[in-house]
Design goal:
By secondary structure, this protein is mostly beta strands. The N terminus is likely disordered.
């Protein structure tokens, strides 16, 4: 009794066939923006975040992580990289709850099943002293 026949078979091309198909489109690597990755350590953060878009639309989203320079949130909407928004949330610190608000630039928006929609990467723009202090306390705790 022989082995069952495969449903499909991928036949590797010989070297000469490969050279002939150089004009065929190749799969491109994902486009990376030079500064789309935060260099700082990230701290998990699972809390509600209100994003206010440029047109005034408010979105109630959920944060995934945060660092000195930005954060990642999950969203049902595919937001536009390059747009700016306002971020508002409450952070639980050792001494109580503090409000955090900042302007941020949307750096990326990628479909991510584990996030239940899209992962949105935000880079904080110039933080106020109060926001900087609150963030520093949260990251240190």
């Amino acid at each position: 009794m022989g082995y069952p026949q495969p449903l499909f078979c991928i036949d590797p091309m010989s070297e000469s066939e490969s050279e002939q198909n150089d004009s065929a489109p190749a799969f491109a690597a994902p486009h990376q923006v030079a500064n789309d990755r935060r260099k700082e350590n990230r701290k998990l953060l699972h809390t509600h975040v209100i994003l206010t878009l440029q047109d005034g639309t408010q979105l109630d989203e959920y944060s995934l992580d945060i660092s000195d320079s930005g954060m990642c949130v999950s969203s049902q909407l595919n937001l536009h990289p390059g747009d700016t928004c306002s971020v508002f949330m409450r952070l639980v610190l050792q001494y109580g709850v503090a409000e955090f608000s900042a302007r941020a630039k949307i750096n990326y928006s990628v479909l991510a099943r584990e996030a239940g929609g899209f992962k949105i990467g935000l880079n904080f723009l110039s933080l106020s002293q109060a926001a900087e202090d609150t963030l520093r306390h949260y990251l240190r705790d």
